[in-house]
Amino acid sequence: MTTELEYQKLIQCYDWDNLFTLWQDIQNENTPNWSNGKALEYLILRSFQLEQAEVRYPYSVPMKNSNYPVEQIDGVIYFDNIACLIECKDTTEAINFEPIAKLRSQLMRRPPTTIGSIFSMGGVTAPALMLLDSIQPQTILIWEKAEINYCLENKNFCTSLIKKYRAEIEFGGYYRCNVSIDTSGDN
């Protein structure tokens, strides 16, 4: 079984071209060198890292005075005074509220300025999106497959994170900001 450290060493060798190839493999469900879901986690984190964001690759948080893990974090991104917990879901089905609730719980144990991002290959169900509005003030940004593709093609995950975060600030609550659409109001 491959360890987190081995995955990290592997992904460190990837440039944008390698990431785009890995992205195609993820979409084709053909990632033999990666355990289930790991390819997406590491692709997202490496993409941010290539744009000079500081990243923390997947890790477990042990319970106090124990080695028993109390939570598993898919990753953290630090960029432009933003700290963002990452949750990745590499499933073809739309995610329901459970991953959102999990991330919200993780955010509640962090400083209030920490935000979260969920990257979902299958999208998010309508009820989950409705419930997302009720969990404020924790900010959770949703990234779907088309947005991930757009960010990879344009090499702009960091810019897109800021765009999504600003839309959340400006429009309040859950605002579905698609990173490929101008939300500045200057059209």
In terms of topology, how is this protein built?
Layout: H1 4-11, H2 16-27, H3 38-50, E1 54-56, E2 59-62, E3 69-73, E4 75-79, E5 82-89, H4 98-108, E6 115-120, H5 126-132, E7 140-144, H6 145-154, H7 157-171
Parallel strand pairs: 5-6, 6-7
Antiparallel strand pairs: 1-4, 2-3, 4-5
Helix pairs in contact: 2-3
What number is the mean pLDDT? 90
End-to-end distance: 51 Å
In the CATH scheme, the class would be Alpha Beta
Largest sheet: 5 strands, mixed
**CATH topology, which one?**
Trna Endonuclease, Chain: A, domain 1
Q: What is the CATH architecture descriptor?
A: 3-Layer(aba) Sandwich
Overall radius of gyration: 16 Å
Residues in helices, as a percent range? 40-55%
From the helix content, strand content and strand pairing, which structural class follows?
alpha/beta
Are there runs of 5+ residues with pLDDT below 50, and where?
none
Count of domain modules: 1
Number of helices: 7
What's the SSE pattern?
HHHEEEEEHEHEHH
How many extended strands?
7
Percent strand: 15-25%
Strand order of the largest sheet: 1-4-5-6-7
Envelope shape: globular
Overview of the structural elements:
The protein is α/β, with parallel strands linked by helices. It has one domain: Trna Endonuclease, Chain: A, domain 1 (3-Layer(aba) Sandwich). Helix content is 41%, strand content 19%. It is built from seven helices and seven strands, in the order αααβββββαβαβαα. The strands form two sheets. Strands 1-4-5-6-7 form a five-stranded mixed β-sheet, with helices on both faces. The chain has a two-stranded antiparallel sheet with strand order 2-3. The chain is globular. The chain starts with a helix and ends in a 16-residue tail after the last helix.
